[in-house]
Known about the structure:
Pfam families: DUF559 (PF04480). It comes from Sphingomonas rosea. The protein has 90 residues and is of the alpha+beta class. The chain has one domain. Helix content is 34%, strand content 21%. It is built from 3 helices and 5 strands. It has helices at residues 30-41, 51-56, 58-70; strands spanning 2-3, 6-7, 10-12, 17-22, 45-50. The strands form 2 sheets. A 3-stranded mixed β-sheet has the order 3-4-5, with helices on both faces.
Amino acid sequence: MPVGPFITDFLCRERGLVIELDGGQHAESVSDTMRTEFLRSEGLTVMRFWNHDVLGNMDGVLSVILAKLDGLPSWSRRAHPQPLPQAGGE
Length: 90
């Protein structure tokens, strides 16, 4: 799902959650850090999982995601770090 200049692996817009799956090529990636920082600056929560964890422990990964979702308000109630001005405002 596109967000700004990036394509995310999964985006739940309703909850503002991005899930990224990382393989071995992501071990020391500066671009992943920049990507995560950009997504967070857009008010999104980013979760990263290794591919082998998803393939070998899907139930564990889903449990972590569900626990995170329990703590996230719906997107419409989240404060964006750069909110739009109110109607009639500057």
